[in-house]
Amino acid sequence: MSITRREFIKYSIITSAALFGLGCIGGSEKEKKENITPTPTETPSEWIPEKEIQLIIPYKAGGGTDIYARIVAPYWEKYLPGDQPIVIINKLGGGGVVGTTAIYQAKPDGYTIGLIIPLAMIINQLTKPEVQYDVLKMPVLGSPSAYTRVVCTNPKTVPDIENWDDLLERIYDLTFATYGFGGTAHLAPLLTGYESGLYDPRKLHFVHYSGTSGVIAAFERKEADVYFGAVEAHTAYRNEVFNFILVFKNERHEMCPDVPTTVEVGIPNAEKINNALTDIKAFVAPPETPAFITNTLASSLNKAMNDPLCIKEAKEKKRPITPRNAKESVKLVNEMFKTWSKQDEIIELLKTG
Amino acid sequence: MLFEVISIAFSQIFTSLGMALLLFGIVIGLTMGIIPGLGAMATIALILPFTYGWEKLDAFLLFSAIFGSTTVGGSVTAILLNTPGTPENIATTLDGYPMARKGKAAEAIATAAFSSMCGGLISLAVFIATIPLLRSISLMFGPPEIFWLGFFALVIISAVTKGSFLGSLIIGCFALILSFHGLNPITGTPRFVHGFIYLYDGFQLIPVLLGTFAVSEMIKLSLERESIAYEVVKVEGSIKKGIKNVLKNRYLFLRSLVIGYIIGAIPGIGGTVANYLAYAQAVQTSKNPETFGKGDPRGIVAPETANNAKDVGQLVPTLSLGIPGSGTMAVLLGAFILHGIQPGPFIIRDNLDVVAMIAVTLVFAFSLSCLFVMFLGQYLARLTTIDVYRIVPIVLVICFIAVYYIRYEILDIFVTLLFGMIGYILVRINVSRILLVLPIIIGPIIERNFILSLSICRGDYTYFFGPISIFLILIMVATIIYPFIKRKYKLKKMSWGD
Amino acid sequence: MVEFKGTLEVLLYLSIVIYLLILITELPKYSWNAAIFPLLVIILSLILIFLKFLQILTKMKWLDKVDKLTYVNINIQNEHAKEEVTTRHAVITFLFTLSLAVGVYLVGFFIAGGLFATLYVYYYSRNIKNVAFMTILVLTLTYLLSRVFYGEIWKGILFGGG
pTM here? Predict the structure, then answer.
């Protein structure tokens, strides 16, 4: 059947329009499919941040934790894909609880992370019912520092105590200084007593000063005999103010290689105690942050912490970096939580004061 | 060695960067001091993160310039608006404001500025001379001594109260109770937090201060006046007279200087009470105390001299022991740590250059800020004639913004509001607002040192009565009974005259 | 107006008493070290408030003398409030200040500050020029301070703040 030119043009236009229409609908269907959130099997392996990342520090600017963040952040920015800055926000309050809660409750989209002190936050979680976070649910990205406990004695008041055994003999007559109730300097002798069974921690005499400077002044005024300090922070005062007699590590510490370890001295459960007292700082993300985001953050963080320039800068600022990757850090935090959650007597003491 | 580092400091200041930082610090310090509630503590805390990575001498040049200018800036607001610009200016309001109301604002400001400058400079000379003795002095004050000193300060404050005595005591005790809210410093357990994590840190100083003085003052202005000055008075008063006021009262000046320096030098007490104690001694040692509170220049000389002397004195325990004497010093300690300087007994041994920089910068900061204020006083005095509705919205908004930025906690503005309302109620019922603020600062210090002393002494209570403690107790008792003795002596004299 | 002052005083001390009684119920939860100081101060406060109420209600002479006790007689004129303040006016002013705080919390500094300046200045001066000038000044100041200080200014809980 022949058709006229006019009819041909008419049918062409109609057909083209129809096809065009079908194409549009089909195209949009196709687009829709492409916009669907990728299934887990299609998850991108790398996250590229598209705006600035907020790094919350639950402590004041200029404090120990804050400084570590400020040392590491520029290098982290360098290794993170994309060109986005990491902005540090200090959110103080409640001894770190307010900031940690803010990190915990933030959107799990990678744009809010934080640097916390897991040991202190675990203790808070176990002893304060008002606390609204769960340390175990926060993905750990890595850890830049670990403070190792060391038993310090006062050369002015107890010059005759030269080792752990000497100390044990007179332990109930000594005055134990701490930088604050519930701080690691207080927890360490308690935990050691309960876990090792070598002495009864309830009979120890504690005096809780305000800050490390308070302890140092107390030692100078001959008011205190023992302090469970940190090797990294107190080596500068060694011999003048403190005598180091025992270090809470599985092997000798490079900053005080002459000081024996808890393992060498034969303290029962020494390794468990050492791990529970490792005072790390840990970079964390809010719970349920997708793995591809935390993996990106963790791997770039690890590169940053191991960057020789970063390590050098940290050393110059007297804040040595002891990098721990995400896997190791998570393991340590879990172990810590397990040990501390079983310390019913210590928890009860901290709850009532 | 000391001369070497001092000359290094001078050469650092006399560079273009040095001068720029100095002037910038002075301007910021004066401005923040003038704005009620934003003293050196808040200012340095806010600027600190920006200085990360700077050369440490540059950073401390800036901090010291700020630190040296805020209290004199605060005296301007205390005099013109009856609102202390910083906590250290509380006592200046007592006579400064009445002088402004009499049209002598410029003279009052000049008196405050010149007292501050001289007090600061002479204290600095003392400080530099005693640097070698710093550590031994600081170690003399242990927990029992600090406890007695805090107790002494509270007693003095109640002693110089006016209005309803019972009311003052009630409010003082109430403020003490408010200071117990939060994480107990001794046992770390939360007290009176009613389940709110927000209250773990208790009532913060800056929201309390801003609320009690600035917000309540704005409420008062809104309710009662068209402008701060009851009448639009001609701004009078001469700078010369202001300077003469200080020279005429040189013995008072020296006594206040000593009080300020010593209070500042004692660790942990918080230098905010120095201005009030200096004021109290000015009143008590005066032959005609009834002129105080009505615009007596001596009521400005005493606290303002003590202020800057206290600023220098505070450096003693902070630098030598690493124990801050006040909130401002605590922030300064944070600055030391941020710049890789370890606070503690060895700071002078290892960082004498920073100590020298602080001292030298303070010389310039005290002098220049005081000169600025003295000559700008004439113009600043015109603030008193501005209509209330122009001042109130600005001050209230600035207050709330400042409070928010201290720790990015929006609920702090409600604390400010609450204290503002209580502050105004206190004004209406004739109770001094100072009793709402000072116990909140001193309460934790007293409690902490009391419990600490109990811990240390292990039942041997003679620990509370060491030689320095006894000395402090005797001074305290003497201060309390002195007015009664004086009155009795006067009465006796009168009866002999018959 | 003496009535206003008297009522205010009674209300204030009554509120303090109620709060202190609430605090007393919390004391048994704390250890001895934590409770001793607050307990002593609370007891002292309650005794003082009792004496004060006694003085207000009974006007006993010796209590009046105690109340006027002062080591130094400082008559601070600037602290003396004008008597012509009505309760209504005081409540309005309190509400203004409260509304600023609540407004900031809900909608942030810019909107709340601007609105406050507008309403406040209009209430006191009834002059549109003043209103405009002050609103712009407050907004400018807010903006400058938000640039000077580190970190974002509070946007208000309704706009995602916190």
Answer: 0.74
Q: What is the pLDDT of residues B200-211, one digit of tens each?
A: 888 887 788 778
How far is the alpha carbon of A272 from chain B, nearest alpha carbon, in Å?
26
Shortest Cα–Cα distance, C24 to chain A (Å):
17
B410 and B497 within one domain: no
Q: Minimal CA–CA distance to B108: which of B138, B79, B149, B131?
A: B79
Residues A268, A157 share a domain: yes
Q: Which tens digit of pLDDT belongs to each residue from B407-428?
A: 788 899 999 999 999 999 988 8
Closest to B118 measured CA to CA, from B307, B325, B329: B307
B416 Cβ under 8 Å from any chain C Cβ: yes
Chain A nearest-CA distance from B298, in A, is: 38
C-alpha–C-alpha distance, residues A282 and B264, integer Å: 38
Judged by a CB distance cut-off of 8 A, whether residue B183 touches chain A is: yes
Q: A164-173, B39-48, B92-101, B339-348: which has the minimum mean pLDDT?
A: B339-348
Cα separation, A117 vs A127, in Å, equals: 16
Domain range for C152 is 92-159
For chain B, the domain total comes to 2
Chains in touch with C (≥3 Cβ pairs < 8 A): A, B
Structure tokens at B250: 């040189």
The verdict on B241 and B115 lying in the same domain is yes
Domain end, chosen from A216, A241, A276, is at A276
> A267 and A342, same structural domain?
no
Nearest to C48 among B166, B225, B428 (CB): B166
Task: Please report the pLDDT score of residue A21 as a whole number.
Answer: 45
Looking at residue B294, its amino acid is: K
Q: Give C-chain residues touching B393 at CB under 8 angstroms.
A: 113, 116-117, 120-121, 134, 138
Average pLDDT across chain B, whole number: 81
Q: Does C104 touch chain B (CB under 8 A)?
A: yes
Report the distance separating Cα C101 and Cα B235, nearest Å: 35
In-domain check, residue A310: yes
Greater model confidence, A318 or C95: C95
Under 8 Å between Cβ of A234 and A242: yes
Determine the structural domain holding residue A168 and report its residue range.
149-276
For chain B, how big is the Rg over CA atoms in Å? 22
Say yes or no: A257 contacts chain B, CB-CB below 8 A. no
Largest CA distance in chain A: 120
3-state DSSP assignment of residue C154: coil
Q: Which residues pair with A176 in a beta bridge?
A: A206, A226
Structure tokens at A81: 């894909």
What are the tens digits of pLDDT across the range B260-315?
A: 998 887 765 556 678 888 998 898 888 888 888 889 999 999 999 999 999 898 88
Give which of B392, B409, B445 to mutate to test C binding, by max C Cβ within 10 Å: B392
B158 pLDDT higher than 80: no
ipTM: 0.90
Write out chain B residues lying below 8 Å of A220, CB-based.
Answer: 139, 345
Could you say which residues of chain A have pLDDT below 70? 1-45, 353
- B391 pLDDT tier (thresholds 50, 70, 90): confident
What is residue B90's predicted lDDT score, i.e. its pLDDT?
84
What residues of chain C lie within 8 A of the CB of B163, using their CB?
79
